[in-house]
Write a structure and sequence with these properties.
Helix content is about 50%, strand content about 20%. Helix 6 packs parallel to helix 8, helix 7 runs antiparallel to helix 10 and helix 8 packs antiparallel against helix 9. By secondary structure, the protein is an alpha+beta fold. The protein has two domains: about 200 residues; about 150 residues, no CATH class.
Length: about 375
Amino acid sequence: MKIFIARIVLCLALVGWSLPGSAHKQSDSYLSITQGAGDVALAVQWDIALRDLEHAIGLDIDANAAITWGELKQRQAAVVDYAKSHLQIANVAAEERHECPLQFTQMLVDDHVDGGYAVLRFSVDCNTRPAQVEVRYSLLFDIDPNHRGLVNIRSGEDSHAAVFSQSSSVQRLSLASAQRSSQAASFIVEGIWHIWQGYDHVLFLLTLLLPAVVLYRERRWEPRESLRDSLLDVLKVVTAFTLAHSLTLTLGALGWVYVPTRLVESAIALTVFFGALNILRPVVRERRWLLAFVFGLIHGLAFASVLVDLGLHGWNLLLALIGFNGGVEIGQLAIVAVAVPLMYASRSTTIYRRVLMPIGAVAVACVALYWFVTRAFT
C-alpha cells in the first residue's frame, strides 16, 4: 500500500512538472519574402499561430478558450502593430543600409498542421530593387526563447530557406542567388535543437536505452556482463528508431503521408507510456528494436511537421530535409553518447536496477499519460 501511495504522489508531482510539455510542436511562425520579376517592392506574408498571439497580446475577448474571426478582426490593429514591431527589413548594398518600411495590406486566417494561424500580408518598399536584405526578427523571443521563425525567400524561379532563432535574430538574405550551404547548416542546427527540446522524444529514447545494459531474469533486472552485448542492443534499437523516423519524416515532408497533428502528438505520448510500461512489466525483451521501429514511425511524423508548412519544393526541400534529419540524428547520438556510458557504469548498482528503473518508469508513465490526456482532449 505504501508503494502504491508513493507512486500516486509521484504521479501528481510529475503532472505539475509536465505542464510545459503538453503540446509537442514548438512555437514556429512562417515568413515568406517574395521578389517578383522587375518589382521594386517585396511581398511579405507572415503566418503567426493564434495561440502565440493570444499569449503575447490577447485575442480571446470573451475568454471562452476559442478565438473567432470576429475577435481576431477586433484585435487586428494590435496584431499588426505587434508584428511590425518585431520585424524589420532593410536593403543592404555594399556598406549602405536603407530601411524598407512594411505597409500592411491584408489579414486572413489559415489552418496549419498544429492549428489556426493569422496570415498577415505586407508590401515592403525598398525604393530600389534589392539584391540582399537584412532581416531583424524578434517575434516572441521575450516570451518563448525557443521560438523559431522559418523563412522562405523567393526571387523569380529561385527560392531558399532560413531559420531565425534568438541567437540568430539578424540575418542577411540574398535575393539574387540561393544560399545552399547556409540553408543546410540552419536546418542541421534546427534538427539538433528539435530533438533536444522534444522531451517526449528524449523520454521515449531513454525508455529504450535503460534496459540495454541489463537483462530481465526471474522477474527482476540483472546487469549484463558483456559490454559488447549492451552496445549491440543499443545499436539495434537506435538504428531501428533512426530508420523508422527518417522514413516517415521524409514521407511527411514530401506530402505523401499526412496525419493530423493532434493524433500524432497523442500517439507519441502513448509510445512513451508503453515504453515505460515495458520496463515495469517487460513484454518485449529481445526484440525491443522492433518496438523502436514501429513507434519510431510515429515520431517521424512529428518531426515532419516542422517542414510541412514551410512550402519548400525541389532542391530547397531536399536540402532542408537532409539537414534537419541529419541534425536530429546528431542530437540523438549525443544523447546516446552521454547516457549509455553512465548507464553501463551503474548497471550493477541496486539504485539503478531497483530504484532508478522502476521509479523512473513510473515517473515517465505518469508524465506520458498526462501528455496523452491534454493532447487528445484539450
